[in-house]
What does this fold into?
Amino acid sequence: KSSLVFHTVAAESQRLINETYSAFVQGFMPNRARPDVDVLDGLTTAIVVDQQRLGGDPRSTVGTATDAYAMLRVLYSRLGTPHLGGPGAFSFNTATVEASGALSVGKEHARAEKVSFHRTGGMCPRCEGRGSVTDMDRTRLYDASKSLADGARLAPGYKAGGWNARLYTESGLYDAGKPVGEFTERELHDLLYREPVRMKIAGINMTYEGLVPRIRKSMLAKDRESMQPHIRAFVDRAVTFATCPECEGTRLSAEARAVRVAGKGIAELSALQIGDLAAWLARLDEPSVAPL
Ligand SMILES: [Zn+2]
It folds into this structure.
């Protein structure tokens, strides 16, 4: 019954620590009831280590989860050469975007001003900050000898008659009664890669999109461990992951990778063991960023 004891002690310790925060902060924290025990005293501050997953975002790393990477981004935005921009310019969660348009100023005698917006992000445009690119084994997506109407698709969640399957069989872009192996190049492209397009299926407005990008969005948005078992089994069979050829797995844009502090790039530092990183930082003598 040791786990019962440890959980009780951990819950009480956590509750005691939470009580030291202001009522405002406590409002944002998980609310724990006092454990159902007669007496529990003499508890010192406990550090509770559990084995829960950090979260399902495939872009999270040791650096982002601990905020160490956020500190490095500030360091590079202040000291890096060439100067690239704020900390966002080194974030692999932030894409570089550009927009422009007209802005009307005032209600009467309104005049239009041309404005443009630019944000520099650190995201590698090829892999969108994941560090790896995916490829799908077509032979695992469909059985070329079967037609779509016969259930040629092999991805989970695309059972004949379901909405996912009807999107393809009733799209009208190809003959659902023809074996996929006999599709023309154009038809195969529409099936696998077509850009999103609105269409009416069975009287309902739906968005049609090729099977490959659709599966990528719906199934590969989580990292492998957080997937449901049947999805994970399919992904293991059908999808291959390769290091992104553009950023070489660093997740960062070429601009962000080129910036140096004391001869080192942020990607190089990110690849270090945490102890080596601490030692490198300790040798850096920069009073302007000393609090970091
Ligand atoms: Zn990349």
About this structure: The chain is about 35% helix and 15% strand. The chain has three domains: 1-51, 62-129+248-289, 133-243. The longest strand covers residues 97-105. The mean pLDDT is 87.
